Amino acid sequence: SQKIEQNSEALNIQEGKTATLTCNYTNYSPAYLQWYRQDPGRGPVFLLLIRENEKEKRKERLKVTFDTTLKQSLFHITASQPADSATYLCAPSQDGNKLVFGAGTILRVKS
Amino acid sequence: GAVVSQHPSWVICKSGTSVKIECRSLDFQATTMFWYRQFPKQSLMLMATSNEGSKATYEQGVEKDKFLINHASLTLSTLTVTSAHPEDSSFYICSARRGGPWETQYFGPGTRLLVL
Lengths: 111, 116
Prior knowledge:
The structure holds 2 protein chains of 2 kinds. By secondary structure, chain A is mainly beta. Chain A is 0% helix and 54% strand. Chain A is globular and about 40 Å long. In chain A, 33% of the residues are buried. By secondary structure, chain B is an all-beta fold. Chain B is built from no helices and 11 strands. In chain B, strands 2, 4, 5, 6, 9, 10 and 11 form a 7-stranded mixed β-sheet that branches. In chain B, strand 9 (90-97) and strand 10 form a beta hairpin. Chain A binds chain B through residues 31-32, 34, 36, 41-46, 49, 89, 95-104, and chain B through 4, 6, 34, 42-46, 49, 91, 93, 95, 100-102, 104-110, 112.
């Protein structure tokens, strides 16, 4: 069955450092992958979308990579700030109609 | 742009009653809307997909008679939890998509339902 794995442990980093979050998938060939941010008690907020034919995508301090050979996506936040603290969800999509979400990784940025 | 609202944001009801949750796309027309449920410390689980003017497609294990979805217009979808029970208590989130399958989904702020 399709499986999506994100870092189960919370990621604690110091302000100013780069946070790297991992999303691995198995039994899956997603055509694209999205990353969302979710704050407690709120709906997810779209961050970035990367397609299978794209290796890397950037938006301000965010960078996403997509390695279809390793079946992995990495999400980087450079110069992290306490305001970046949240849960980050990856959501690969195989047919474009349905998003399947990973459990999410909690990021805590300490000042 | 791409703002999605939900109403109410919080609802408490007695067991056996029905609750309606509205999802609206405020600044775009949504060809497709989705309903998710999220339990504490778990990820979002898709419940159903609805296209304007047609019946919703429910995911396996989701009772369509219990979770009634109406997508009456390109900017409004409603989820009605019928005869709610305490196990239906959860965080319900909708999303809306304005284009085809490869377009981004934009999420509402969620509705927390507590059934006593």
